[in-house]
Amino acid sequence: MPTLIKQDDVIESVAAALQYISYYHPPDFIQAMNKAYEKEESRAAKDAMAQILLNSRMSAFGHRPICQDTGIVTVFVKVGMDIAWQATMSLEDMINEGVRRAYLNHDNILRASIVADPAGARKNTKDNTPASINTQIVAGNKLEITVAAKGGGSENKSKFVMLNPSDSIVDWVLKTVPTMGAGWCPPGMLGIGIGGTADKAMVLAKESLMDPLDMQELIARGPKNKVEELRIKLYEEVNKLGIGAQGLGGLTTVLDIKIKDYPTHAASLPVAMIPNCAATRHAHITLDGSGPVYLDPPKLEDWPDIHWKAEGAKRVNINQLKKEDLAQFKPGETLLLTGSLLTGRDAAHKRIADMFARGEKLPEGVDFHNRFIYYVGPVDPVRDEVVGPAGPTTATRMDKFTEMMLAQTGLIGMIGKSERGPTGIEAIKKHKAIYLMAVGGAAYLVAKAIKKSRVVAFADLGMEAIYEFEVEDMPVSVAVDVTGESVHITGPALWQKIIAGVKAKS
Asked: Measured between alpha carbons, how far is 115 from 111 in angstroms, rounded to an integer?
């Protein structure tokens, strides 16, 4: 007798799994991150990892998203051939209905980040559908579903190359990883797909990120095949780059390297590389006809009891700052910000640019003079929250708008995630402004510093609207100072030399 799979069971199982991964890190990730934290020698990187681990524990207890970017949903489905359906919807429609219910759950609302008409109007679908779904028909009588929620910051750093069969995969990876910057929020994983065709390699890379983290066990027992040899080699060599947590320089850039391969044409060597960030979220469920599947909560004692403090941090009232005050802040310095700031990210910057091009003024209530902008798209609040998780988004996407903002609005500072590119740094140096970095992957922790929140403009943009936040002791570090010095350049360069020196002595 075929197994009977009911439509509502699929929908409920997908919705429950997506809620689960929004606030529970996989335990293997926590263990790997904690080991990296314990051995880290870079103060800045260790501080960033402490915030990530603390944020993870807070999210697990509070059942709120680990990261404000609750991701684009990717689903891998294996459909047993001996399955019968009690359904009126297609399998894709069932999965998307599960996504819809998960993201609109009033107890833990998740951020809707998906836009339709991507090359045109880019209108938000409001419920984070549709998912990216990969389906296989396999032997058996069960329905296996792996769900993942992939943040845009890490997804945007995906890379692909068609190498010659004689080319070195290691050389390509080591050349490519430094070009990815820190927008993918290291330390995390690199998923690598080798072989097949261009499209197959990309799917393999994404699918590899669903595997458990087992690098330390692999190193301890030794490799059994060429793929495992390659995993270990890349793990060691990528970490020697010294990029470190959040790109600040340190011992650990990757916690694991995952690889899947597939036969390919004799003339081809397709290689895809997709990073997974510190907000890695995925889970596997199996439906056997007995009803919906609910994952067991992890043991909260699996989380390290880290009490992070911003040691040596300087408290700064940003309401009282003037442009001439910015020269006192030095790269790498930790600050605790109190006061009022405005938010804005891609869509808001584009709308401001269009308004200026038409000779229009900024909307009433939007005054950037002597103020900071925070690059963020927060999650909607629930219960008694002022705002939902509100971590930073990748700052480099705003680089092309930085000259305009600094020259035409009176803005003096920016807060975001990861490095700034040459265009952004040049504008910061020219206008003697400053760029501060908040830790990506610590969204719930950051939100606790936000005491008031209100939309002041562009409400139709949803999470991309301009908000005004009142913050108290919001933790940031100085990433680019008024001279244009960037810790994302100096930090990794220093740690690459330190790591090389240690290797030379050993």
From this structure: 12
Q: How many domains does the chain have?
A: 3
Q: Is residue 164 part of a domain?
A: yes
Cα angle vertex 288, ends 283, 294, to 5°?
Answer: 40
Look at residue 17 and give its three-state secondary structure: helix
| d(C-alpha 287, C-alpha 3), whole Å | 9
- Map tokens 């040596």 to a residue: 312
Query: What is the residue-level pLDDT of the chain in tens, covering all 506 positions?
Result: 899 999 999 999 999 999 999 999 999 999 999 999 999 999 999 999 999 999 999 999 999 999 999 999 999 999 999 999 999 999 999 999 999 999 999 999 999 999 999 999 999 999 999 999 999 999 999 999 999 999 999 999 999 999 999 999 999 999 999 999 999 999 999 999 999 999 999 999 999 999 999 999 999 999 999 999 999 999 999 999 999 999 999 999 999 999 999 999 999 999 999 999 999 999 999 999 999 999 999 988 889 988 888 778 999 999 999 999 999 999 999 999 999 999 999 999 999 999 999 999 999 989 999 999 999 999 999 999 999 999 999 999 999 999 999 999 999 999 999 999 999 999 999 999 999 999 999 999 999 999 999 999 999 999 999 999 999 999 999 999 999 999 999 999 999 999 998 655 55
What tokens appear for 302 in the block? 């699996």
- Give 38's contacts (C-beta < 8 A, 6+ positions apart): none
Do residues 427 and 396 lie in contact, with contact meaning Cβ atoms separated by under 8 Å? Answer: no
Write out the DSSP string of 17-60: HHHHHHH---HHHHHHHHHHHHH---HHHHHHHHHHHHHHHHHH
Residues 412 and 267 in one domain: no
Structural element, H or E, at residue 207: helix 198-208
Instruction: Give the β-pairing of 282-287 and 269-276.
Output: unpaired
- Asked whether residue 132 falls in the same domain as residue 177, the answer is no
Tell me, yes or no, whether 498 lies in a domain: no
499 occurs within a structural domain: no
Contact 396, 420 (CB under 8 A): yes
Q: Structure tokens of 231?
A: 């995993």
Long-range contact set of residues 115-122: C-beta below 8 Å, sequence gap at least 24: 122/347
Question: Is the pTM for the entire model greater than 0.90?
Answer: yes
Q: Are 379 and 111 in contact (CB under 8 A)?
A: yes
Phi, psi of 64 (to 5 degrees): -130, 155
Residues 160 and 229 in one domain: yes
Contacts of 432 (CB under 8 A, 6+ apart): 323, 326, 327, 482
Same domain for 141 and 244, yes or no, is: no
